[in-house]
Each structure stands twice: as structure tokens, then as C-alpha cells.
Amino acid sequence: MTAAASRSEALASAGTAEPEWLWRSGSLVPWREARVHVNAVGHASVAAVFEGVKAYLAADGRRLLVFRLEDHLRRLYDSARICRLALPYDLDTLRGAVCGLLTANGYRQDAYLRPWAFPQGVIREQMVPAGTICEVLVDSWPFRSLLEAGGGCRAAVSSWQRISEAAMPPRVKAFSNYHNGRLALMEARENGHDWPIMLNERAKVSEGAGACLALVRDGEVVTPSLTSGVLPGITRDTVLTLLRDLGVRVREREVDRSELYLADELFFMGTAWEILPVTAVDGLTVGDGVPGPLSRRLAAAYTDLVRGRDGRHRHWLTEVPLP
After folding, report:
1. What is the model's pLDDT at position 6?
2. Are residues 158 and 299 in the same domain?
3. Based on the domain organization, do 82 and 212 belong to the same domain?
4. Tally of domains within the chain
5. Of 144, 145, 69, nearest to 114 (Cα)?
6. Do 124 and 158 share a structural domain?
């Protein structure tokens, strides 16, 4: 199995494990008993917002380190605000919910967490009313980090256009927005590629199906600006910070499609994807056709950061002692 296939399989199967507990509306609830009526699904999902957060087992094996929890929760509230949803819990409550859930489920390995909010009860109105009170849940499952697995993926520029600020604001992390990337992903797979790259309404490079993108050319890293139709990625921000720590020049600007074909290196970056090198785009080999030196340095630096070996950004780590 190729590294790209392994990563795809890991992402596809990530949600199959059953934990003992999830957090729902203020208390821990047995995972198997967390139910809603079938009529609560559908219209309520149109407005649902969510986050993906990772907790990594520390290098010392004694703690879980939740990565950038505060930033993820703040973005959840930002998404809810733009969607005009009312979240009935404050940041401290949700922070405690995430840490308490990790402890309750007894994780002693890397764990993925998904805080999410959807309109409470049965929603009959297709256009969910502004100010609707939400249920808030935090779900979790084990995952396998592929930061040290090596390998890369084949990407293709999609015929599907990335959603725009004028239509469905890309800065909102809403389930409905992800259908855009889903269409692009299915097209890429049908045509023999691993992942899509989407262009925006100005035919400039935007992002992948759930991950931001950066290219390396002549020792400089270039990534599409936040006004290019990208989600303001927390991993993106992390990577740009790490690059500056490494003394690498970084530019955020509009990126032309043809620049992808001339890149020395190319990589996706996102919470689920971590750092995923692209070894071919539209059938053209990127660099030498293997993960490049900067991508490998970044993966190593990211690993050291999330495992607690690099203390320069310790404020990004929320410690949860192992049970």
C-alpha cells in the first residue's frame, strides 16, 4: 500500500472506533445512548458548525497534549456567529468538556476530538432561523498520526470551483461547506488522483478538500492569502510560524495555477492531514517526485511541537495527564 493510500485509509476509517463517552449539552453521555430523532437530522445539519482537534501523546508518554484547543474553540464560536447560531456554553465550559472527555475515555494514545453544534430539537423550517439555540457535542476517537510515515500524494486541479465569500463564506467551518470539497474529491478519485486542488472564482489557487496548500520555489514558501477562499487554517498558521522559526521566507498572496507546475515542493496542511507532500499535480512530477527536504523538515518540526519536545510554543498545548 502506498503512503498516500495509507493516509487516505487512515482518514476514511478515523471515525469508526466507539469510545465509551461523549460530551453532550453539559454532561458526559454514554456513546451508544446519544440519540436524536430522525426528524432532527436534515434541516438542522444545514447550519451545523464544527471543529477538528487533535490530542497527541507526549514524547514522555505521561500526558496527552491537545493542540491549539483555544484557537479551535474560538473558531467554533466565530463560525456560529457568522451562521447566527446561539451556543449556550462559554469557552471555559467547552475547554473543560474536551479535557474531561479525554480523561473519561481513558485514552493513552493520539485522539481526535470533534466539538460541534447543531440546532436543538426538530427543525421544520428549511432556513434555520437566526438565533436558534444549539446542542453542543464533543465526540472523540483514536487516530494514527502519519507525520513520520513519509510518502506523498497525487493531486489534480478540480473542475469544481471553491465556494466564495459572496456565496458561502469559506471562513465558516460548517458541514454544509464541505460538500464543495467532497465533489472535488470524488472527481479526483474518479480520475485516478488522490486529492483535489480547487481554484476560486478568480481562477486563483485556493485550497484542497479540507486542507490548505503551500508551494516551495527557490527557497521561498508561498501560500494563497486568506482572501483566496481558504478556511483560516490553524495548521496553516502553525506551519507558517514554524517556517519562520526555521528562517524560511514566507509569502501569502494570490497563486496562479501554473505556479503549481513549477514548484520545487508542494504540500497540503490541515488538522486531519497534518503535513501531506504532493508528489505530482495534474500528472506532472513535483520536484524529484518524493517529499522534498523542506517538507521533511516541517514534518519533523511539527512532530516535535505536538509531542512536547519543542518548548517554543508551549502555550499551544493543553496538558491532560494520563489516567
Report:
1. 56
2. yes
3. no
4. 2
5. 69
6. no
Give the Cα separation of 46 and 174 in Å (integer).
8
| Residue span of the structural domain in which 230 resides | 153-306
99 and 174 part of one domain: no
Give me the catalytic one of 173, 204, 236, 307: 173
Angle at 115 between CA 64 and CA 91, to 5 degrees: 85
Separation between Cα atoms, residue 121 and residue 152, nearest integer Å = 43
Sign, Cα dihedral of 63, 68, 73, 74: positive
pTM: 0.93
Nearest to 152 by CA among 268, 246, 320, 247: 268
Is position 121 within any domain? yes
Residue scoring higher pLDDT (92 or 129): 92
Cβ atoms 70, 237 nearer than 8 A? no
Phi, psi for 237 (deg, rounded to 5): -65, -40
The phi-psi region of residue 107 (left if phi > 0; otherwise alpha if psi is between -120 and 50; otherwise beta) is: beta
Whether 173 is catalytic: yes
Helix (H), strand (E) counts: the chain = 8, 18
Give alpha helix (H) positions in the chain. 3-12, 43-46, 69-82, 91-104, 178-190, 234-245, 257-261, 293-306
Distance CA 108, CA 56 (A): 9
Asked whether residue 99 falls in the same domain as residue 185, the answer is no
Taking the C-alpha atoms of residue 158 and residue 322, their distance in angstroms, rounded to an integer, is: 43
CA–CA distance, 24 with 33 (Å, rounded to integer):
11
Distance CA(181)–CA(215), nearest Å, equals: 20
User: Is 316 part of any domain?
Assistant: no
Model pLDDT for residues 153-180, shown as the tens digit of each residue: 999 999 999 999 999 999 999 999 999 9
